[in-house]
Every structure is written in structure tokens, then in C-alpha cells.
Amino acid sequence: MPELPEVEVVKRSLETAVNKLKIKSIRINDKNLRYKVNIKGIKRLIGLKILSIERRSKYLLFFFEKGNAMLVHLGMTGKFILINKKNIKLRTSFYYKLSPKDKKHDHIRFIFSNNTQLIYNDVRKFGFIKVENSKSLKENFHLKTLGPEPLDSIFNFKYFKNYLKGRNRIIKDLLMDQKFVSGLGNIYVNEILFHSRIKPTRQISRLRDFEINEIIRNIRKILKKAIKFGGSSIKDFSNSKGKTGSFQEHFKIYGMLGKNCSNSDCNYKIQKIVISNRASFLCPKCQK
Description:
CATH superfamily of the largest domain: MutM-like, N-terminal
Number of domains: 2
CATH architecture of the largest domain: Alpha-Beta Barrel
């Protein structure tokens, strides 16, 4: 599943390719996504221009004329494929290759006034597309309980410290909780905790103030670096300009089971445990 940096890269890619374009037509091949596509609702977008494209957590938000908005979540395997004016297919997300087999999973096709096409493709169909009123979008079921963006100033020491009061959880589960902070997922939480030298199973009640500040600092540092490098290409990734995501080359802990810890003062090997059904990697010496 794409995390915040990958969705941000997709957003920027789409801003370059389709922002300010008008939808000429929409073809729906399969409406049975995670939520059934409202055909009448999505057809309202025909003839309307995209005013802006934004990201909230791991969601993409398309704002159109006449107060319409489109909310998109990519789920596990959802992806946007662009076909430019020269009829060349371009990738916009990190976990797939373009293949002739793609076509059977092309569920919705948006054709724009300049003949650029945007295809929503989803093998497992856990993603979804909903059309909403832009004014009421903040009250949408999927968005209204989201915590602050990790790169926003509101996500600070005071917020973090206050949130811990009266709660008894481990730090990895807290950072994965979208109600606490939005957009973080398994890959980046592993990296953040390693850089912060904090064990993923540490009880949040045992966090010291300097450790909270260190977590916040590393969240910002790692996310900004991941966005700069185009996201993490666990398999293949390139945005609409063909730029490849390369942050995986900078992983220090994720997927490093059995390898030596990258810290120069450590000779321990990376271990793997499972927390909430997700793989967690840690150094038994450096992370306490």
C-alpha cells in the first residue's frame, strides 16, 4: 500500500499531467471497487475542469468546477495510469510494471479535452473513487477522523505529549494510527523508529521528552527525504515524467532481516518481529 510520500509523488505527477484540464468523457468498465462506483455521481464530472489536486493522508482529492470533488484511495493495488497526447503510457505509482495484462483491470477511464487519458486500474479492487460536494468533503467519513499531517506545524511536541495522556499503547501502533497522525505506514514507521533508536514495542508511557522530539524530527526528516527521492520503489516506480522512486536505496532497517546494523558502533544483526500482523524490523542493541 502506498504511504504518504508515494501518494504525494502521485499527486505531484497528476498535477503536472491533468490539472486544469476538462473531462470530455468517462468510461466505466467495472463499478465494483471497494465501494460500488456511483455512476450518476461520477458522470457529473463530464464537462468540468479540474481546479486543483490535493493530498490528505493517503487520499487524493480532485477539486472540480461547480463545487464537485473526487475522493480517491488506492487501497492495496490501485494505481493511476496516464496515456499522454502521444498515446504513450506512463506510470504514476511505485508498485507495478506496465503490462498488456493491465487492460482487464482498467476500471475507470477519464478522457480529457486534450485527449490525455487517466485510467484507474486496480487488481484487487480495494481502492475506491467517490464524488462528493467539495464544501462538505471535510466531514466525509474517511477524512473527518484523520489526525494532523506529519509535516504540518500542528504535529508538534505539545500535541504529541498531550495525546499520550491516559493511553497505554506501544509506539509503533501509535504511529500507525491514522487518528493520531495521518499518512504514516509500515515502511516509514520502521525507519523512523530505527533512526530514533526506539524499539517498536516500547510503551508510550515510557517515552522521555527528548525521545518524543527525536521521533518528530525523524518523521519530518525521513518523509521529506522520501518525497525528494520520489518515494520508495519496492518493485518498480516512476512518475509521469519517468522519474524512478529511489528512497529504498536509503533504507536503514526495513527489509534488512539478518543484515548487520548500519550504525557504525554496532555489530548486531537486524531482527524481525510481527506487530499487529505487520513486519517490524529492529536492532536489538540500538533500539531500546
